[in-house]
What does this fold into?
Amino acid sequence: MTRTRFYLLLFLILFGLGGVRSVQAQRWDWNDEATAVQLRSFDVFLHDHPWIAKKLWENPSRINDQGFLNGNKEIKQWLEDHPAGAQAFHANPAGLMARERHFQMYGADFDARDVRSAQLARFDWFLDNHPEIRKDLMRKPGLVNNEEYVEHHPALRKFLDRHPELRAELQDHPREFMEREGRY
It folds into this structure.
């Protein structure tokens, strides 16, 4: 798809489907709980629309094909209802489908009654988006207790602040926690 067609499609989606949307204000933060909710919604959508799911698994870039969208009003509606998800999907279709596959494999763990499974799922999700932090902590788990390291990585600080139980477990037993994460 040419850059011009992509921008035209993006313009049509942002302005041609019911008015201006404040997509810029809704950034797709993979570690935000709202993002997980939208991804769960997308997962349910794919389960409820297997024909669309099959087509998107075969070729995720179909999401940028206006003909595909016009022929599948349900996906068009989902995109309208989830503007931040739509923006992420249009920008990186294969990446979003890869995240969806990961979510299908581990998504149930987010809601697990087993706190340890839920913690590992959330931390794995975070580390998938921060490979440099994963590499550092796998090599030297004690860095999680190094204030200078945590201050230098604001995303890690924010994640740990949002998940105090996970933070306590990770800080109390960094090596064991990272070994479990490595096997997850």
Notes: Residues 93-110 form the longest helix (18 residues). Confidence is low (pLDDT under 50) at residues 7-28.
